[in-house]
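Problem: given the chain below (158 residues), write out its structure.
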Amino acid sequence: MFIPRPNKSFPHLEPAVWAIDQEHAVHYFFPRDCPRVIYWKADNSTIEDREQFFRYSTVDKIMVVENGWMERLRTTKLYVYVFAPEDFHWFEEAKTAGYYISHKEVKPLRVEVIDDLLGSMMEQDIELRFTPNLSLIKEAVINSSLDFSIIRYANAVK
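Solution.
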């Protein structure tokens, strides 16, 4: 059973249970504390930003992770809880994140295990990149016209 709880990123929000849509689920195919920068083409992305960030790629979404997380990506098992969609509503405040919330207790319909995170990512239409340090790509993405998600950055190499 999942019980609503406060969220540090949205302290004004009533306690909630959080879920993610299928399109954004790949953002979470990582060990929980793994820092990552994810960016993708948006309708309002400039031609210059598309060229700069996607020049040598055929995908619309790129995910960047620090080198030090490779072994954990190879060995981590992920448990995906599947919920009934009618228990959740779209969290409009974070328009491009794919979040859904419920303010009541919810029971998963089933649990799916992903025991090959890298393989599961490669089945998606994304590009996965590794770097020693996320700071440069983080700053570049934040200052671009792309949509992005920066997850667990507090755990990144400083």
